[in-house]
Amino acid sequence: AIPWWKEFPWLAAAAISPGILLLQHLDPWDSTVAIAAGSSLSHIGLTLTVGFLTGLGLALQPTAGATETAPATDGMRRSHRLRLSLAIACCLAIGWLAIASLSVAGRGNLRFAVNGFWQWTSMIVWSTSIGLMATRPGFGRLAITAALALGVGVLVYGYWEYGIIQPELRRQLERDPIGLFRRQGVPPESSAALLLADRIRSTEMKGFFALANSLGGFLACYWIWIVTVWSSRRSRGGFAFHTALAIAGGVALLLTKSRTAWLAAGGGTALILLLSMIFNGRVRRQTLGIACGAALAVSVTGLFVVYLFDPLLLKEAGKSLA
Q1: Which three-class secondary structure string do you get for 283-302?
Q2: 105 and 114 in contact (C-beta within 8 Å)?
Q3: pTM exceeding the 0.70 threshold for the entire prediction
Q4: CA-wise closest residue to 100 among 92, 46, 126
Q5: Residue 245 and residue 35: Cα distance in Å, rounded?
Q6: Contact assessment for residue 194 and residue 244, using Cβ atoms and an 8 Å cutoff
Q7: Separation CA 209–CA 30 (nearest Å)
Q8: Residue 31 class from Cβ within 10 Å (0-12 exposed, 13-18 middle, 19+ buried)?
């Protein structure tokens, strides 16, 4: 039996991860005001903690490798190459983020760039940790349960805010705007009051987030995930439940009016379907090569057309990433 203290880092990391998902919605850092107030520091600290615990778990329980009596198998070699490739990709991404952050030194926004660097780095570390924890027994069921609970909570609050809270705030804004601002703790003549009024008058679903695009980004990922789970269910009860979630998530995604999220959801769904056909052996290598080549040609052509019409959009991409 494995000693408990060797299992503890994995259990602690798995216990903290759902809390991070919940915190990201109760205290989202999707606006400059929230980030300037330091709301992202707790997220960064927790995600890096999960990364540390996962690394400690790996150190305490190294993957069994080849020995004199048990030589390395093809599966072991593929797993090693995959982990090595993932580590290299993560290091390259973090290196690029560091270069992009330092490129803005002397322009007055280095503090935000450094904060952004740690935000992205923590997300990379956390995503990698989730991938490693996914190989642990029982983690898949925990992850699906946590994601389902989080998605249902976001959808319920989003519809509540869209159908009940927002209409009531609009009526209060029309009757007594000064009183509304004071009850919300916002000075009536400030720029924050104008932002609050614009948020109340908008007809997009925003839920826990400051921006509808932020909710749209979450729902795009949730839609892709729920469609994947939905397509793999075989029981009648599970099929009905996931169908209802897919419909509720799709309608909420439309109500965000985020065209970028719509494109992401559509492209992600198409990619999931393609991967499903590949894994099931329904796509030949030649067909896949032609499809990838066509996708690459369309992407390069699209970038060229964008550059012709608006060169700054590509030239300023590094600053935007920073």
Answers
A1: CCHHHHHHHHHHHHHHHHHH
A2: no
A3: no
A4: 92
A5: 31
A6: no
A7: 7
A8: middle
Q: Are 220 and 253 in contact (CB under 8 A)?
A: yes
List, as one string, the DSSP characters of 91-125: HHHHHHHHHHHHTTTTTT-HHHHHHHHHHHHHHHH
> Which amino acid, residue 297?
A
Cβ atoms of 155 and 247 closer than 8 Å: no
Region for residue 99 given its phi and psi (left: phi exceeds 0; alpha: psi -120 to 50; beta: otherwise): alpha
DSSP designation for 202:
-
Is residue 45 packed enough to be buried (19+ CB in 10 Å), middle (13-18) or exposed (0-12)? exposed
Query: What's the number of CA atoms in the CB half-sphere (13 Å) around residue 6?
Result: 8
Structure-token pair, residue 127: 């995503």
Residue written as token pair 């509304």: 180
pLDDT on residue 281: 65
Please list the rounded mean pLDDT of every run of 10 residues in the chain (322 residues): 80 85 72 67 89 87 50 64 76 85 75 82 88 79 80 91 92 89 85 84 86 86 80 63 85 88 84 72 65 75 75 57 42
Is residue 270 packed enough to be buried (19+ CB in 10 Å), middle (13-18) or exposed (0-12)?
exposed
Return the number of other C-beta atoms located less than 10 Å from residue 286's C-beta.
8
Of 54, 46, 67, which is closest to residue 7 (Cα–Cα)?
54
Instruction: Give exposure, 129-159, as e/b (b: 16+ Cβ within 10 Å).
Output: bbebbeebeebeeebeebbbebbebbbeebb
Instruction: Count CB neighbours of 28 within 10 A.
Output: 20
d(CA 123, CA 29): 13
- Residue 292 exposed, middle or buried by CB count within 10 Å (0-12, 13-18, 19+): exposed
Angle at which helices 39-60 and 4-26 pack, to 10 degrees?
A: 160
What does the pLDDT read at residue 252? 92
